[in-house]
Design goal:
The protein is built from no helices and eleven strands. The protein is mainly β.
Length: 124
């Protein structure tokens, strides 16, 4: 299968910035889309940013203009950088990847995987 491991996160002051990264590993055939979702306490998970192999990006309105997503297609890494953070950005941030992988029989199958999450807390 495909594993996703996030890094970054932590405590941030209001107005500060965040820098997250996530690397996908496993028997990967190709990754079509990589992205970041977040889940605040008591709320549903929302997809905040995604990026396709060709570089097409999409952002949730809540982060548009403040967050930037990028990816390294060679190393299967996706990055999320944000600035001007507010307490409303406090959440567990999860990496997502969708694509195809080689199963145990060397057949290509699709996958849609999430990482374990990394916590971002914005507080003064």
């Amino acid at each position: 299968q495909v594993q996703l491991v996030e890094s970054g996160g932590g405590l941030v002051q209001p107005g500060g910035s965040l820098s997250l990264s996530c690397r996908a590993s496993g028997d990967i055939f190709g990754i079509h889309s990589m992205g970041w979702g977040r889940q605040a306490p008591g709320k549903q998970r929302e997809l905040v940013a995604s990026i396709l192999t060709d570089g097409t990006r999409n952002y949730a309105d809540s982060v548009k203009g403040r967050f930037t997503i990028s990816r390294d297609n060679i190393r299967n890494i996706v990055y999320l950088r944000g600035n001007n953070l507010t307490p409303e950005d406090t959440a567990v941030y999860y990496c997502n990847a969708q694509g195809q992988y080689y199963n145990s029989h060397s057949k290509v199958e699709t996958f849609d995987s999430w990482g374990q999450g990394t916590e971002v807390t914005v507080f003064s």
